[in-house]
């Protein structure tokens, strides 16, 4: 019976679970964001007090407490395209697989030819004043193909610095994320939690409207797993109304 749940005293908490998100106001289904290492809400108050001046010794005569803000903090373990784009205020472009013909470059031995697309395959490097008149350069002893482009060996036998080079190649589909190109997103979040300290009973938290700020750090090289630390603010949802109905978040537990 529901009344029995409200009377429970023993209720230790250690929760795990799934986090789902969708743009605030969207009608599409909330989608899982992947492994979330940390998720929490932090409340701060504006406290106004009035001193008790009626007697020796002082004290507080009156106090008013109002919630100043509710912060949400999360640590995302999965740096998928959506999480990364939201965390760097970025826009995403889906690049279809294709080919590039005679992309122009100028040689510097021991340097990288940064190609327009990543993970090139079937690479053909040519050298010459024009693409039409260029001759093919053998890979062996001259260059290496890398995900970021074509690396010219410092002791390349058939290429000299300042040579005009032309690169043709194929590439697979990929996503390009342009950082700092949009405003902070507002999300509706659902935490589908399970309380490991209480027989796996459910703890479901609905955060109706929250902003997500830019990640504090974006580790590119490190000794451990990378993660995205983000913060935001729980905002008032004007679509919620009624006595005893929160306009911010709701917790349901079994």
CATH topology description of the largest domain: Pnp Oxidase, Chain A
CATH architecture descriptor text of the largest domain: Roll
Low-confidence regions: none
Content-based structural category: mainly beta
Strand order of the largest sheet: 2-1-14-15-17
Please give the radius of gyration in angstroms: 29 Å
The total of beta strands comes to 17
**Helix percent band:** under 10%
Q: Give the total of domains.
A: 2
Give a quick account of the main beta sheet: strands, pairing sense, barrel closure.
Answer: 5 strands, antiparallel
If you average the pLDDT, what whole number results? 95
Number of helices: 2
User: What top-tier CATH class of the largest domain fits best?
Assistant: Mainly Beta
DSSP strand content:
over 45%
End-to-end CA span:
10 Å
Q: Tell the overall outline.
A: elongated
Can you write the helix and strand succession as a string?
HEEEEHEEEEEEEEEEEEE
């Amino acid at each position: 019976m529901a009344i029995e749940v409200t009377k429970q005293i023993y209720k230790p908490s250690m929760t795990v679970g799934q986090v789902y998100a969708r743009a605030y106001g969207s009608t599409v289904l909330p989608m899982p964001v992947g492994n979330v290492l940390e998720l929490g809400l932090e409340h701060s108050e504006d406290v106004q007090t009035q001193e008790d001046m009626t007697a020796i010794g002082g004290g507080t005569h009156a106090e008013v407490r109002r919630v100043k803000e509710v912060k949400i903090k999360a640590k995302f373990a999965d740096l998928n395209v959506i999480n990364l784009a939201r965390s760097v205020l970025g826009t995403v472009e889906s690049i279809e697989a294709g080919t590039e013909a005679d992309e122009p470059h100028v040689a510097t031995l021991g340097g990288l030819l940064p190609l327009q697309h990543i993970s090139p395959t079937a690479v053909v490097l040519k050298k010459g004043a024009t693409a039409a008149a260029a001759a093919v350069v053998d890979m062996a002893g001259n260059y290496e193909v890398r995900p970021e482009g074509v690396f010219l060996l410092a002791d390349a036998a058939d290429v000299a610095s300042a040579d005009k080079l032309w690169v043709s190649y194929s590439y697979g589909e990929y996503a390009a994320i342009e950082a700092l190109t949009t405003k902070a997103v507002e999300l509706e979040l659902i935490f589908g939690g399970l309380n490991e300290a209480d027989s796996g009973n459910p703890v479901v938290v609905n955060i109706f409207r929250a902003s997500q700020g830019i990640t504090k750090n974006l580790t590119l090289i490190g000794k451990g797993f990378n993660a995205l630390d983000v913060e935001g603010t729980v905002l008032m949802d004007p679509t919620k109304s009624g006595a005893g109905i929160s306009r911010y978040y709701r917790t349901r537990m079994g």
